[in-house]
Design a protein that fits this description.
- It is built from five helices and no strands.
- 34% of the residues lie in helices and 0% in strands.
- This is Ndufb8, NADH dehydrogenase 19kDa subunit.
- It holds the Pfam family NDUF_B8.
- InterPro entries: NDUFB8.
C-alpha cells in the first residue's frame, strides 16, 4: 500500500458518515469522549478521534495542515489539528524507561567525574595554631563589620 492510497483511505475515514465510523479501540485517557449524542452538535458529523499529526504528510490539498479542500473540521480541531499537542510517538512506559536510563547515565557520569577523574590535592592544606589564628587576629568579635545606622 503506497502513501497515496493510505492518504486517500485516511481522507475517506475522516469524511465518512457517523454510522460507518468505528470507534477507535484505544483512546487517550484525557481524550476519551462520551458516546452519547451531544445536543449542541445537532446533525454535525461524528468524526473519529485521529490526530492530524499521525496522518501521512504527502497527498493533501493543504500539506501543512494535512487537509483536503472541503474537509469537515472535527469538533475538537484545536486538540486534533497540526497545531495541537504533539501526538506521543511511543507509549508512556517506554518513554519513562528511556528517561530513567538517561537520568542514571547523567548521575553516574557525575559520580565518575567527582570521585574517579579528579586527582588528590598535591599539597597538604595549611593548618594554623590556636584555632586558625583567631586569637592572634583579635578574635571573632573584633573582626565583625560595624553596624550601620541611619543617624550617622
Amino acid at each position: 500500500m503506497n502513501a497515496l492510497s493510505r492518504t486517500r483511505a485516511a481522507a475517506r475515514l475522516l469524511r465518512s458518515s457517523p454510522s460507518s465510523v468505528a470507534t477507535p479501540a484505544v483512546l487517550r485517557s484525557y481524550a476519551s469522549q462520551a458516546q452519547e449524542a451531544d445536543p449542541q452538535l445537532a446533525d454535525y458529523p461524528r468524526l473519529p478521534w485521529v490526530s492530524r499529526q499521525t496522518l501521512p504528510p504527502k497527498g493533501w490539498w493543504d500539506p501543512q495542515m494535512r487537509r483536503n479542500f472541503g474537509d469537515t473540521y472535527h469538533e475538537n480541531e484545536d486538540i486534533l489539528g497540526m497545531w495541537g499537542p504533539d501526538a506521543a510517538p511511543l507509549p508512556p512506559n517506554v518513554a519513562l524507561r528511556w528517561f530513567s536510563i538517561a537520568v542514571a547515565g547523567f548521575v553516574s557520569f557525575g559520580f565518575l567525574a567527582k570521585y574517579a577523574l579528579i586527582a588528590d590535592r598535591p599539597a597538604i592544606p595549611r593548618e594554623y595554631p590556636f584555632s586558625g589564628l583567631v586569637t592572634e587576629l583579635g578574635g571573632l568579635e573584633e573582626n565583625q563589620a560595624r553596624p550601620e545606622s541611619v543617624n550617622e
